[in-house]
Write a structure and sequence with these properties.
mainly alpha; globular; 2 domains; 83% helix
Length: 471
């Protein structure tokens, strides 16, 4: 019964996420056509500040709260109310700081007001996401997925209205606010089944909780700096057009990030179980996931690189966003770092290396800021893209090194020579094969899939090894 519930949650969340991605791409297409490069750049910049606010208020509260309420005998209602009180206090403080300081930023008034609207969206988003751990504990993440799906529908509906009625720019930004309000209302409605929410200010518990969570919180801020700071630096060192050009390409990458996060999340319990007691099973699980990621990355990276113009044309007018395909070709390789970065980070958490992760993330966030400051003035958005790729790959590399010093594991590919043949096959078919555009992509992916299945690089036993388990 429990296994079926887990499988249902994964299936429901995955399907709703895929549909949401389709809706998001449609919304982006409407926005890029309606706003143009400058307007979409302003929209992307406002979203970057939304991400900054979420990172600053995170403080690892969700992760540690989930851990605390999952322990035997935990008073779930009391813990979550204390954490919610802390999160709401931090959220309001960050929101007021942003609203008060935004007028000192070197942006036009329209962008400043857009950031204030995003601060309102942040208030609702930050308030409901801290409760995700409750749904996770009760195997009810389908309710969160449903709430977020409805929120995405609301956002796209507002964007459609903006484009058809030719409403002002700030209405487009407000689509995020309306989506977060929708998420907030639905999550709190579903939450009533599990806990009753109330204000509970407990200074002693808050101090204890922050001591536990601060490494994750600082890591979240550092992660934002190497994941989103390029957008803010582009706005300061270049112009809105550069931000829009870069944002259109990066939106494609953002739609794909959920997949490695989902898979890495699925194997985190297995890593935790095997980490210190069953080294052989730990290594075999790692081998399977690494090979699985490699199998996915080969056609995905190649498709983004060779079909960059066709992909950008799906969400924007290529004549206006003329350099976005070149940016996407560079960013295609960032997925290598993102996929393996998620995997090794979760493995490091299972090995209790949170403080080591914090040091790595802070160091590479600093590196990324410096690299962007050096590259953007000379190479504009192409420099920002190159900095992102290098930083993400370094994150994966250094996190893996930290793990390998504490745990006896190493990177191993199953049937590496066959994977190399598959890589060469994909690139050769894209360069010399028949057809063109998305037809070529389907053709290459189909032949690649046939090859992978025929040579048996991943078996059914491998897939069983990384499936969710509750035993």
């Amino acid at each position: 019964m429990i296994t079926q519930r887990i499988s249902y949650n994964i299936l429901f969340s995955s399907i709703s996420k895929i549909i949401s991605i389709g809706l998001a791409l449609y919304g982006i297409r409407l926005l890029t056509h309606y706003l143009g490069t400058d307007g979409f750049g302003q929209y992307t910049l406002a979203l970057a500040y939304f991400g900054f606010m979420m990172a600053v208020s995170d403080m690892g509260l969700y992760t540690i709260a989930t851990r605390e309420i999952s322990r035997d005998g935990a008073d779930e209602n009391s813990i979550m109310n204390k954490v919610f009180t802390l999160r709401l206090t931090m959220t309001i403080s960050v929101m007021l700081f942003i609203c008060g300081s935004v007028f000192f930023l070197p942006y036009e008034d329209q962008v400043k007001y857009a950031i204030i609207i995003m601060a309102g969206a942040f208030l609702f988003s930050s308030s409901y996401t801290v409760f995700n751990g409750v749904f996770q504990k009760h195997l009810a993440m389908d309710r969160v997925a449903l709430a977020e799906f409805v929120g995405k529908c609301v956002q796209v509906a507002v964007i459609v209205a903006v484009a058809r009625l030719e409403l002002p720019f700030l209405w487009a930004v407000s689509s995020v606010l309306f989506a977060m309000i929708s998420n907030f209302v639905l999550v709190f409605f579903f939450l009533r089944r599990y806990i009753s929410v109330r204000w509970d200010w407990d200074p002693a518990y808050i101090i204890f909780f922050l001591k536990e969570s601060y490494p994750m919180g600082i890591s979240a801020i550092a992660t934002f700096l190497y994941f989103k700071v390029d957008t803010i630096l582009l706005s300061l060192l270049k112009d809105n057009s550069s931000v829009g050009m870069y944002g259109a390409a990066y939106k494609i990458i953002e739609t794909l990030i959920f997949f490695p996060a989902m898979v890495a999340g699925l194997v985190l319990p297995l890593f935790s179980r095997f980490m210190f007691t069953q080294k052989e099973r730990l290594q075999k699980t790692l081998d399977t996931v690494i090979t699985f990621f490699a199998i996915i990355l080969i056609p995905l990276t190649a498709g983004l690189y060779f079909l960059s113009t066709e992909i950008i044309s799906v969400i924007s007018n290529v004549d206006d966003f003329y350099d976005s395909p070149r940016i996407l070709q560079i960013l295609a390789f960032v997925l290598v770092g993102i996929f393996f970065g998620h995997l090794f980070t979760n493995m490091a958490i299972a090995a209790n290396l949170q403080k080591r992760l914090m040091v790595i993330f802070i160091s590479l966030a600093t590196f990324n800021v410096v690299a962007n400051i050096i590259l953007i003035p000379h190479y504009d958005y192409l420099g920002a893209a190159a900095s992102s790729v290098l930083t993400e790959i370094l994150v994966a590399y250094f996190v893996y090194r930290a793990i390998s010093k504490h745990v006896e594991v190493r990177i191993r590919l199953q049937k590496p020579l066959l994977l190399l043949v598959a890589l060469v096959l994909v690139f050769a078919l894209y360069i010399y094969g028949p057809f063109g555009g998305f037809v070529k992509g389907v053709y290459v992916t189909a032949l690649y899939g046939v090859f992978i299945l025929a040579v048996g690089i991943v078996t059914k036993d491998d897939l069983r090894r990384i499936r969710p388990s509750v035993s």
